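Worked example

This section walks through a single chain of length 448. The input is the sequence exactly as stored; nothing has been trimmed or padded.
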Amino acid sequence: MSNPAAATYGRNAPDLAALWMPFTPNRATKAAPTRLVSADGAFYIGEDGRKKFDGVSGLWCSGAGHNNPRIREAVTRQLKELDFAPSFLFGHPAAFDLATRLAKAAPGDLEHVFFTNSGSEAVDTALKIALAYHQARGEGQRTLLVGRERAFHGVGFGGVSVGGMVANRRAFQNLLPRTAHLRHTYQPDLNRFQIGEHEHGIDLADDLQRLCDLHGGETVAAVIVEPMAGSTGILPPPVGYLKRLREICDRHGILLIFDEVITAFGRLGEAFAAARFGVLPDMICFAKGVSNGVVPLGGVMIRKGVHDAFMTGPDWAIELFHGYTYSGHPLAMAAGMATQDCYEVDGLYARARALEPVFAKHIMALRDHPDVTDIRTVGLAGAIDLKPDPAAPTTRARAAFLRAFHEQDLVIRYTGDTLVFAPPLISTEEQIADLFGKIGRLLHGAAG
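Given that input, the structure is written out below as tokens.
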């Protein structure tokens, strides 16, 4: 079926050279483009004019569905009223309103919000707050930042330094010097084909105690982890792992940061993964789902005690020398507020919880395929590991990704030889069944 949008956007198809695409094999992609020209609900329209189910919520963003009228209309109203206002020395009502609303949705005393424009900026902001917090308390020797292997914390120098994605680190080398890393929690021989939190691996949290013994717990500023690692191919936490990290942090006066850029706002059936796993961090980094991806927005939730440590000295003095031109951008605030309406009014967190066992059933139904080596799933997030081609690692997953797009009309992701899925929270049971039915046909070599 022809599509007017596809025809319009396709006019520049021969000229793709100017754009340097992020995290993309540019030459291969431009040789056979996988361009998206419009979207509505749980579907994209490709340049070929065909509807394609969005199996990854855009980029973990669009849980409330594309072209959501509530969000679209809120942003349009805001654009007519106030297109931009600086956040340095000034403010506008929408920023205060959204911060208050997010604080009410967060667990515990995570009562303060610092707005950024992305998850990468949120991570670097949280790391800087951690360092400045210890300085403010007279513990300036706390400069060591601890991340984890296989973690993705964005693309800022701080995020890459504490991150553990090997290619991201090796490409640049000159990173922050005072970092250390916990081991990752991927133990396929112990946890293969498990649903939800993994049975084995709580002992891996003791790596933090080992680092404290090695470097001195009094020198560690913060530990940052994803409650569920996403970009590396969906690694749910082992049972009790996050609680043990919290205990070790408390023992040594270390701040615990959760990177919830992927997990916040319904992906795991709650506003924040911290609530699902019953662990209160000192800061939460968020982005993506906070605005449904409609306008770039991110931020950091900060516990009261951390925030209040800065609120000393003269009240006319700047407490934190950090910020972005677009922090609290009016359009982003409008999108964020309307998105929260969608989650609450439309009951999308409860919907995600109800869909979780359906999602798990259908993805796990593919476990017996001979090329599938492992499947992991928690919430509405899942990954299928494929047996690599020894002669050309990562090509098997990329081939499946391309066939999914062109033959099965699916938008999915891959990392290494792993296929990744995170459908919108508005998905139906039938759409999830169809998603994995098509993936099953794809793995068995059937087309169409």
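What to look for: The radius of gyration is 22 Å.
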